[in-house]
Design a protein that fits this description.
alpha+beta, 2 domains, nine-stranded mixed sheet, three-stranded antiparallel sheet, 20% helix, 32% strand
Protein backbone atom coordinates (compact mmCIF):
# COMPACT_ATOMS: atom_id res chain seq x y z
CA UNK A 1 0.00 0.00 0.00
CA UNK A 2 2.83 2.38 0.90
CA UNK A 3 4.45 1.84 -2.48
CA UNK A 4 1.19 2.65 -4.23
CA UNK A 5 0.81 5.88 -2.25
CA UNK A 6 4.39 6.99 -3.07
CA UNK A 7 3.85 6.33 -6.76
CA UNK A 8 0.62 8.33 -6.65
CA UNK A 9 2.33 11.29 -4.97
CA UNK A 10 5.12 11.26 -7.56
CA UNK A 11 2.58 11.25 -10.40
CA UNK A 12 0.70 14.13 -8.78
CA UNK A 13 3.88 16.21 -8.39
CA UNK A 14 4.83 15.49 -12.00
CA UNK A 15 1.42 16.64 -13.19
CA UNK A 16 1.71 19.81 -11.12
CA UNK A 17 5.12 20.59 -12.68
CA UNK A 18 3.74 20.01 -16.18
CA UNK A 19 0.78 22.28 -15.50
CA UNK A 20 3.04 24.99 -14.10
CA UNK A 21 5.27 24.75 -17.17
CA UNK A 22 2.30 25.01 -19.51
CA UNK A 23 0.99 28.06 -17.68
CA UNK A 24 4.43 29.69 -17.88
CA UNK A 25 4.62 29.06 -21.63
CA UNK A 26 1.15 30.50 -22.14
CA UNK A 27 2.15 33.60 -20.14
CA UNK A 28 5.35 34.08 -22.15
CA UNK A 29 3.50 33.60 -25.44
CA UNK A 30 0.91 36.13 -24.37
CA UNK A 31 3.58 38.62 -23.36
CA UNK A 32 5.34 38.26 -26.72
CA UNK A 33 2.08 38.76 -28.53
CA UNK A 34 1.42 41.99 -26.64
CA UNK A 35 4.94 43.30 -27.17
CA UNK A 36 5.11 46.30 -29.53
CA UNK A 37 6.75 45.70 -32.91
CA UNK A 38 9.53 48.14 -33.73
CA UNK A 39 10.88 49.47 -37.01
CA UNK A 40 14.24 47.75 -36.52
CA UNK A 41 12.61 44.30 -36.64
CA UNK A 42 11.38 44.66 -40.24
CA UNK A 43 14.53 46.28 -41.70
CA UNK A 44 15.84 44.53 -44.82
CA UNK A 45 19.09 43.49 -43.14
CA UNK A 46 17.08 41.92 -40.30
CA UNK A 47 14.21 40.43 -42.29
CA UNK A 48 14.28 40.52 -46.09
CA UNK A 49 10.58 39.67 -46.09
CA UNK A 50 8.32 42.48 -44.84
CA UNK A 51 10.47 45.60 -45.07
CA UNK A 52 7.88 48.14 -46.20
CA UNK A 53 6.14 50.64 -43.93
CA UNK A 54 3.54 53.27 -44.81
CA UNK A 55 3.84 56.92 -43.71
CA UNK A 56 1.62 59.89 -44.40
CA UNK A 57 2.54 62.60 -46.92
CA UNK A 58 0.01 65.33 -47.62
CA UNK A 59 -2.57 63.29 -45.73
CA UNK A 60 -2.09 60.09 -47.77
CA UNK A 61 -0.18 56.89 -46.95
CA UNK A 62 3.00 56.36 -48.99
CA UNK A 63 5.21 53.21 -48.92
CA UNK A 64 8.81 53.40 -47.71
CA UNK A 65 11.45 50.67 -47.85
CA UNK A 66 13.09 49.99 -44.49
CA UNK A 67 16.60 49.32 -45.79
CA UNK A 68 18.96 49.17 -42.83
CA UNK A 69 18.74 48.77 -39.07
CA UNK A 70 22.09 50.48 -38.60
CA UNK A 71 22.56 53.62 -40.68
CA UNK A 72 24.81 55.55 -38.33
CA UNK A 73 23.03 53.78 -35.49
CA UNK A 74 19.50 54.42 -36.74
CA UNK A 75 17.02 52.84 -39.15
CA UNK A 76 17.18 54.03 -42.77
CA UNK A 77 14.01 54.48 -44.83
CA UNK A 78 13.89 55.14 -48.57
CA UNK A 79 10.77 56.24 -50.45
CA UNK A 80 9.63 53.33 -52.61
CA UNK A 81 8.33 55.56 -55.39
CA UNK A 82 9.84 58.70 -56.85
CA UNK A 83 8.29 62.04 -55.97
CA UNK A 84 5.67 63.01 -58.59
CA UNK A 85 7.47 66.14 -59.76
CA UNK A 86 10.98 66.34 -61.21
CA UNK A 87 13.35 69.09 -60.19
CA UNK A 88 16.73 70.54 -61.00
CA UNK A 89 19.62 69.46 -58.82
CA UNK A 90 20.75 73.08 -58.71
CA UNK A 91 18.63 75.99 -59.88
CA UNK A 92 20.63 78.73 -61.54
CA UNK A 93 20.47 82.05 -63.29
CA UNK A 94 20.76 82.60 -67.03
CA UNK A 95 24.44 83.34 -66.42
CA UNK A 96 25.03 79.90 -64.91
CA UNK A 97 28.24 78.33 -66.10
CA UNK A 98 29.83 74.95 -65.60
CA UNK A 99 32.37 76.43 -63.20
CA UNK A 100 29.98 77.13 -60.33
CA UNK A 101 30.21 73.71 -58.61
CA UNK A 102 26.61 73.03 -59.52
CA UNK A 103 26.96 69.43 -58.35
CA UNK A 104 27.97 70.36 -54.79
CA UNK A 105 25.25 68.70 -52.68
CA UNK A 106 25.43 70.91 -49.59
CA UNK A 107 24.39 73.95 -51.63
CA UNK A 108 22.02 72.20 -54.04
CA UNK A 109 18.39 73.11 -54.63
CA UNK A 110 17.29 69.52 -54.09
CA UNK A 111 18.90 69.42 -50.63
CA UNK A 112 17.10 72.60 -49.65
CA UNK A 113 13.80 71.31 -51.03
CA UNK A 114 13.98 68.01 -49.14
CA UNK A 115 14.48 69.73 -45.79
CA UNK A 116 11.84 72.43 -46.31
CA UNK A 117 8.93 71.79 -48.70
CA UNK A 118 9.14 68.00 -48.68
CA UNK A 119 9.68 67.81 -44.93
CA UNK A 120 6.64 70.04 -44.40
CA UNK A 121 4.50 67.66 -46.48
CA UNK A 122 4.98 64.87 -43.93
CA UNK A 123 2.50 64.22 -41.14
CA UNK A 124 3.30 65.58 -37.66
CA UNK A 125 3.79 61.98 -36.45
CA UNK A 126 6.31 61.23 -39.20
CA UNK A 127 8.20 64.46 -38.56
CA UNK A 128 8.33 63.71 -34.85
CA UNK A 129 9.98 60.37 -35.61
CA UNK A 130 12.56 61.57 -38.14
CA UNK A 131 16.02 62.01 -36.66
CA UNK A 132 18.72 64.42 -37.73
CA UNK A 133 21.69 62.33 -38.81
CA UNK A 134 25.19 62.94 -40.14
CA UNK A 135 25.54 62.12 -43.83
CA UNK A 136 28.87 61.99 -45.67
CA UNK A 137 29.22 64.27 -48.69
CA UNK A 138 31.97 65.24 -51.12
CA UNK A 139 33.92 68.33 -50.05
CA UNK A 140 34.46 71.37 -52.27
CA UNK A 141 38.20 70.73 -52.17
CA UNK A 142 37.63 67.60 -54.24
CA UNK A 143 36.82 69.74 -57.28
CA UNK A 144 40.43 70.95 -57.33
CA UNK A 145 42.19 67.81 -56.07
CA UNK A 146 42.78 64.31 -57.39
CA UNK A 147 42.42 62.82 -53.91
CA UNK A 148 38.71 63.21 -53.21
CA UNK A 149 37.83 64.32 -49.69
CA UNK A 150 34.53 64.16 -47.80
CA UNK A 151 32.95 65.64 -44.71
CA UNK A 152 29.75 65.18 -42.70
CA UNK A 153 26.71 67.41 -42.58
CA UNK A 154 23.56 67.13 -40.40
CA UNK A 155 20.36 66.46 -42.32
CA UNK A 156 16.88 65.15 -41.64
CA UNK A 157 16.03 64.28 -45.26
CA UNK A 158 18.60 63.47 -47.94
CA UNK A 159 19.46 61.59 -51.13
CA UNK A 160 21.43 58.35 -51.11
CA UNK A 161 24.96 58.40 -52.49
CA UNK A 162 26.36 56.39 -55.40
CA UNK A 163 28.52 54.41 -52.98
CA UNK A 164 25.55 53.55 -50.75
CA UNK A 165 23.68 52.37 -53.85
CA UNK A 166 26.53 49.95 -54.65
CA UNK A 167 27.34 51.79 -57.87
CA UNK A 168 30.75 50.72 -59.11
CA UNK A 169 33.08 51.71 -61.92
CA UNK A 170 33.20 55.40 -60.99
CA UNK A 171 36.08 55.32 -58.51
CA UNK A 172 38.14 57.78 -60.57
CA UNK A 173 35.38 60.38 -60.69
CA UNK A 174 33.51 60.06 -57.38
CA UNK A 175 34.25 60.01 -53.67
CA UNK A 176 33.10 57.22 -51.35
CA UNK A 177 30.23 58.75 -49.39
CA UNK A 178 28.70 56.69 -46.59
CA UNK A 179 28.65 52.89 -46.43
CA UNK A 180 27.34 50.40 -48.97
CA UNK A 181 23.80 49.19 -48.36
CA UNK A 182 23.18 45.45 -48.47
CA UNK A 183 19.82 45.95 -50.19
CA UNK A 184 21.50 47.07 -53.44
CA UNK A 185 24.45 44.66 -53.37
CA UNK A 186 23.27 42.09 -55.91
CA UNK A 187 21.24 44.43 -58.10
CA UNK A 188 22.12 45.16 -61.71
CA UNK A 189 21.94 48.78 -62.83
CA UNK A 190 18.41 48.41 -64.20
CA UNK A 191 17.22 46.92 -60.90
CA UNK A 192 18.32 50.05 -59.04
CA UNK A 193 15.96 52.13 -61.13
CA UNK A 194 12.77 53.50 -59.60
CA UNK A 195 9.36 54.54 -60.80
CA UNK A 196 6.43 56.79 -60.01
CA UNK A 197 3.41 55.39 -58.21
CA UNK A 198 1.82 54.68 -61.61
CA UNK A 199 4.75 52.46 -62.63
CA UNK A 200 6.49 54.89 -65.00
CA UNK A 201 10.28 54.64 -64.70
CA UNK A 202 12.35 57.82 -64.51
CA UNK A 203 16.03 58.63 -63.86
CA UNK A 204 16.68 60.02 -60.37
CA UNK A 205 19.40 62.01 -58.62
CA UNK A 206 21.97 60.75 -56.12
CA UNK A 207 23.89 63.13 -53.85
CA UNK A 208 27.23 62.25 -55.47
CA UNK A 209 29.10 64.69 -57.72
CA UNK A 210 30.64 63.14 -60.82
CA UNK A 211 33.80 65.21 -60.80
CA UNK A 212 34.54 65.00 -64.49
CA UNK A 213 33.04 68.45 -64.71
CA UNK A 214 31.98 70.60 -61.76
CA UNK A 215 28.32 70.51 -62.76
CA UNK A 216 27.64 66.79 -63.23
CA UNK A 217 25.94 64.44 -60.77
CA UNK A 218 25.65 60.65 -60.67
CA UNK A 219 22.19 59.57 -61.80
CA UNK A 220 20.36 56.24 -61.62
CA UNK A 221 18.76 55.86 -65.02
CA UNK A 222 15.95 53.59 -66.16
CA UNK A 223 18.41 51.00 -67.47
CA UNK A 224 21.94 52.29 -66.82
CA UNK A 225 23.90 54.36 -64.31
CA UNK A 226 25.26 57.64 -65.66
CA UNK A 227 25.76 61.33 -64.96
CA UNK A 228 23.75 64.42 -65.74
CA UNK A 229 24.30 68.16 -65.58
CA UNK A 230 22.82 69.74 -62.48
CA UNK A 231 20.49 72.05 -64.45
CA UNK A 232 18.35 69.22 -65.82
CA UNK A 233 15.07 68.30 -64.12
CA UNK A 234 15.12 64.69 -62.90
CA UNK A 235 13.26 62.66 -60.30
CA UNK A 236 13.88 62.80 -56.55
CA UNK A 237 13.85 59.85 -54.12
CA UNK A 238 13.98 60.97 -50.46
CA UNK A 239 15.57 59.04 -47.59
CA UNK A 240 15.65 59.65 -43.85
CA UNK A 241 16.30 57.93 -40.53
CA UNK A 242 14.18 56.98 -37.54
CA UNK A 243 14.97 55.51 -34.15
CA UNK A 244 15.25 51.72 -33.93
CA UNK A 245 12.53 51.60 -31.30
CA UNK A 246 9.96 53.44 -33.41
CA UNK A 247 6.70 51.52 -32.98
CA UNK A 248 4.92 50.17 -36.07
CA UNK A 249 1.45 48.66 -36.32
CA UNK A 250 -0.48 46.58 -38.82
CA UNK A 251 -3.42 48.22 -40.53
CA UNK A 252 -6.05 47.07 -43.00
CA UNK A 253 -7.13 50.64 -43.84
CA UNK A 254 -4.34 51.44 -46.31
CA UNK A 255 -4.76 48.78 -49.01
CA UNK A 256 -8.08 47.02 -49.43
CA UNK A 257 -7.87 43.39 -48.36
CA UNK A 258 -4.29 43.64 -47.17
CA UNK A 259 -2.57 44.16 -43.82
CA UNK A 260 0.45 46.50 -43.99
CA UNK A 261 2.77 48.16 -41.48
CA UNK A 262 2.15 51.81 -40.66
CA UNK A 263 3.56 54.49 -38.40
CA UNK A 264 0.86 56.72 -36.97
Amino acid sequence: MKAVVEVGEKMMKKRIRICALCLAMIFIAGSCGDRELTLEKIAYDKSAKDYTVYLKENGEYVPYLVLSSDYNGNVLLLRKYLLPENMQYKKHSEWWTRDENGSYYEESSVDDFLNTEFYDSLSPCTKDNILECEIEVTSKESYQEDDFTTHYIPRKVFLLSAFELYIGGMEYSTAEEGKRLKYFKKMMAAEKSACLADGKKLPYWTRTPFIYETCTVVVVGTDVIGASTADLSLAVRPAFCMDKETVIKKSGDVITGEQVYVIE
